[in-house]
Amino acid sequence: MTETEHLQPRFTTDNLLSLQTHILAEEKAHPGATGDFSWLLSAISLAAKTIANKVRRARIENVLGDHGDRNIHGEAQQKLDVISNEIILRCLGDRANVAVLASEEDDAPVVLRSRGAGGRYAVLFDPLDGSSNVDYSVGVGTIFSILQVDSGPVQSSYLQPGVRQKAAGYILYGSSVVFVLTTGNGVNMFVLDQSIGAFVRVASKIRMPERSKIYSVNEAYRDSFPKGYRDYLDFAHANGYSSRYIGSMVADVHRTLLKGGVFLYPPTGTHAGGKLRLMYEANPMAWIMEQAGGRACAGRDRILDIAPTDLHERTSVVMGSAGEVDEVLRHL
Length: 332
Ligand code: AHM
Ligand code: MG
Prior knowledge:
Blueprint: H1 19-28, H2 36-61, E1 66-70, E2 76-78, H3 79-93, E3 98-103, E4 110-111, E5 121-129, E6 140-148, E7 165-173, E8 177-182, E9 187-193, E10 198-203, E11 214-216, H4 227-238, E12 242-243, H5 249-259, E13 262-265, E14 276-277, H6 278-291, E15 295-298, E16 301-302, E17 314-315, E18 317-320, H7 322-331
Helix pairs in contact: 1-2, 2-3, 4-7
Magnesium ion is lined by residues 104, 126, 129, 281.
């Protein structure tokens, strides 16, 4: 190093960059891109900031607790589930390229416009995942998946395997608000800088650890797991693993992305096919894991290859570090 070299600014990819700029730069790298994504993702970013604000102020505004209704899955809706759902519908509803909006909280998807009328994308989302934790200030999140609608009837045009997603991501409302995004070109992470109201990139092309001795599962259901999962847990106990389980998928998967290990929701006595929803929980998270060098399976099958037959269908989940997922599969 020369005498003055340490005084030079280091212009690296870590320069200050907003989510908006990042998306525009990614589009610029694709000749022929129409700018559609920046419209969609800026709406999701606005929704995320609005929901983050609601989550932070929930106790003050007295919007915690049950809403009084049940969703399509028979689960009690929290007030914040309903509020978050409305925020996303309002933010995305006026984007002219959205054909369909489909939410965990709504039985049927909202069809906004046909392909002929300019509808090009289906946005599938879980507005507030882990919301049963929100009363206790535990991290919760929004998960989304964007698909291009094909030429079939718009009502079912989103029934495509996860491998065809165009963008996927989640927002974690935790001790900081984190936006993790992939458009198939690696995984990027942004943190909301409250003082300027913008998501700022803090990590690009995230690679998750190849292995890590951490498993994340609701072990209370252990006796009802299929034998292979119980064998894996025995293996983990005998080999010095740690256990981490928050009970909010977004928070558990986020930790798994950064620290490595494996997140599991196997078939249980109550949910023989797994509890988590394929299209707006498992698929987006599976793609993020794969884009970061990890793996994501339902039993032995790759999650992203599953051909969905229903918007709200469920799947079992094993996702995380490639070596750790392989270790689970070895026992199945
Ligand atoms: P939700 O979408 O109704 O919030 O349910 C999904 C949540 C996930 O965040 C989490 O991984 C899982 O349910 C926890 O389930 P359990 O309480 O059975 O461990
Ligand atoms: Mg959910």
